[in-house]
Amino acid sequence: MILKRTTAYLLFFVAYIGALVIEKPVYEGDSVIACFSYLLTVLVHFSFFALLIFTNRKLLLPRLLEKRRFGWYAGVLLLLIFLFTFLINNYNQFIHGVLLHDAPIGRSAGVWDTFVYALCCNVIVSMLYITEQWSQQQEQVKNIQISQLQNELKYLRSQINPHFLFNGLNTVYGYIDKTNRGARDIMIQFTDLLRYNLYEADVEMIELEKEAKYLQNYVALQKARSNENMEVNLQISCENGSLKIAPLIFMAFVENAFKHASRDNNTGNYITIALKEEGGSLQFTCDNSFEEAAASAGGIGLTNTVRRLELLYKHRYQLDIQNKPPLYHVHLKLAL
Fold first, then answer.
1. Is residue 76 a contact partner of residue 113, using CB atoms and an 8 Å limit?
2. pLDDT band of 34, cuts 50, 70, 90
3. With 0-12 CB in 10 A as exposed, 13-18 as middle and 19+ as buried, what is 237?
4. Which end of the chain is more exposed for a tag (fewer CB within 10 A), N or C?
5. Measured between alpha carbons, how far is 5 from 27 in angstroms, rounded to an integer?
6. Are strands 327-335 and 317-324 parallel, antiparallel or unpaired?
């Protein structure tokens, strides 16, 4: 970080020295006033140049270019460069004609020279920014791939033969009395959850309707395990179920709700989950009651989910988590 910051400062000062070479301000006189006049002119020139570079680097690039608003970025940047060129070619007369009432500092650069140099400097700044962001993204991808490989290795070490497991579940299902519909339905739901985890969710993107079905089965299974004093509500509304979404992206929040929801009181225990897709915009909400002692609810599952969102939906998601007893609230908005 220190090396990057030092390099950025060094590049900026090199660029500014280049600007002075283009401008070629001429120092005339040997008095203290003349020296002060010259230094003030250079300081104002430095301030305008620094403000232009800073505005592009800290405001335009992250808020426009990185969000792929290319037209707005180009338009605003050109407007700022025109403004910079105008100020550079008029500030000299203002300082010496209005403030100091002395002879203007001589300079050889014209309007076109100033404009082209400012444009080139900002193009270089933009290229360096894009390179830096690409490098950071590649580093994130590399770290996630390493983490996934480690998780897969742990999974393979503890994996039970899926076919043996499904055959066993089918055998258990056959031994459940046909009149016991509740137990048979739970077994089917559990089998569907297992099949989804083992086979269908092993992809980068999956249909929204399949993810919604998995969520329904999971909530139904957890609801059957919950106490009678726990109120569980699930609402799903999807206009286009064929839209693609990252698999199991909501599950950390739902699992967290069922794990930490309050159960001791006779009333007031609830979990409310809502999933709504409309016009390619997805809204996911998960609320649950919990005791103050569980205020630290959450863990590595939530952390990994946030990392996945940042990698897969950068600048296309909004996540709001409120941890204020007796309510734990999660609201996620995704642009699919």
1. no
2. low
3. exposed
4. N
5. 33
6. antiparallel
Contact between 215 and 248 (Cβ < 8 Å)? no
Could you read off the pLDDT of 101-125 as tens digits, one per residue? 656 665 556 678 778 878 888 888 8
Q: Which residues contact 125 (CB under 8 A, 6 or more apart)?
A: 53, 56, 57, 61
Strands 269-278 and 230-238: parallel
Cα–Cα dist 285/151, whole Å = 28
Using CB atoms within 10 Å of the CB of residue 328, give its burial: 0 to 12 exposed, 13 to 18 middle, 19+ buried: buried
Per the CB < 8 A criterion, the answer to whether 210 and 173 are in contact is no
Q: Which domains does the chain have, with CATH numbers?
A: 2-143 (no CATH), 224-335 (3.30.565.10)
Q: What is the mean pLDDT of the chain?
A: 78
Supply the DSSP symbol for 226: S
Cα–Cα dist 224/98, whole Å: 82
Selection from 221, 148, 151, 210 nearest residue 183 by Cα: 221
Q: Which two tokens stand for residue 258?
A: 């069922």
- In sequence order, what are the residues at sequence separation of 6 or more whose Cβ sits closer than 8 angstroms to the Cβ of residue 164? none
CA separation for the pair 112, 324 (Å, rounded): 59
Instruction: Output the DSSP codes for 16-83.
Output: HHHHHHHH-PBP--SSHHHHHHHHHHHHHHHHHHHHHHHHIIIIIIIIIITTT-HHHHHHHHHHHHHH
Asked if 28 and 41 count as a contact pair (C-beta separation under 8 A), the reply is no
Cα distance between residue 266 and residue 72, in whole Å:
56
pLDDT tens sequence across 251-288: 889 988 988 888 776 667 899 999 999 999 999 999 99
Q: Is 231 helix (H, G, I), strand (E, B) or coil?
A: strand
Cis peptide before 162 (omega within 30 of 0): no
Helix residue ranges per DSSP H, 159-262: 162-175, 181-195, 208-225, 251-260
Q: For 226-265, where are the alpha helices, taking DSSP H only?
A: 251-260
